[in-house]
Amino acid sequence: MNPRFFATRSTALALGLFLSACASHPPPPEWLLTARSASEQHARLYLEGRDKLAQSALQKAREAVSRTGDAKAMAYVELHACSVKTASLYAFGCPDFAPLAQDAGAAENAYAAYLRAEVADSELSLLPPPQQMAWKNPPQLGEISEPLSRLLAAAVLLQAGRLPPAGMQVAIDTARAQGWRRPLANWLRLEEERLRRQGEVAAAAAIARQLERVLQYPE
Q1: C-beta separation of 74 from 106 below 8 A
Q2: What are phi and psi of 182, to 5 degrees?
Q3: What pTM does this model have?
Q4: Is 96 exposed, middle or buried (0-12, 13-18, 19+ CB in 10 A)?
Q5: Distance of alpha carbon 175 from alpha carbon 164, whole angstroms
Q6: How far apart (Å, rounded) are the C-alpha atoms in residues 112 and 82?
Q7: What does residue 66 show for φ and ψ, rounded to 5 degrees?
Q8: How confident is the model at residue 214 (pLDDT cuts 50, 70, 90)?
Q9: What's the pLDDT tens digit per position in 80-98?
Q10: CA distance 59 to 71
Q11: CB 181 within 8 A of CB 213
């Protein structure tokens, strides 16, 4: 089981590789299928801003992995949930991972540190390749092909004070293209504030109108 899988499909940041690791011993256990499906559902619902349904899906994933008592499996679920929150600029770090940290692996702890924008140079090789690339060379952020990985990298770089000038627009365009209401709204708010600080009143007003349209039909 290797958290490098966190860098692949946007809604399979947490349990995909764990599932792949079991694929050579079919069929996968029911708890694993349940946890993966629920974790994917949580990501989609959370990014869309559908909080009650998202929380229900996350609880289902947590209950499924808790049957095993496996700290790594449980860590995947928590780190996955923290990834979508981080990408949405809703919260940084992963407090729900903390009780599992001692028994989770080095890669899981490195990823948790990354979500806090506190990853050490010695831990970079443990991160998913797209996150490694963006951390080492922020201007390459837009080259990350997978949308959630790109948005997550932008959020971490922002927290670290290393987001390149074009990075804000990359994040906005990514969230807009996917229809992810929650991160789009938060990134737009940040961009509006930036433009107003710079005295670009007309541009800030245009962003404010866009934000109003995004929030027009809340879930």
Answers
A1: no
A2: -65, -55
A3: 0.86
A4: middle
A5: 17
A6: 9
A7: -65, -20
A8: very high
A9: 999 999 999 987 889 999 9
A10: 16
A11: no
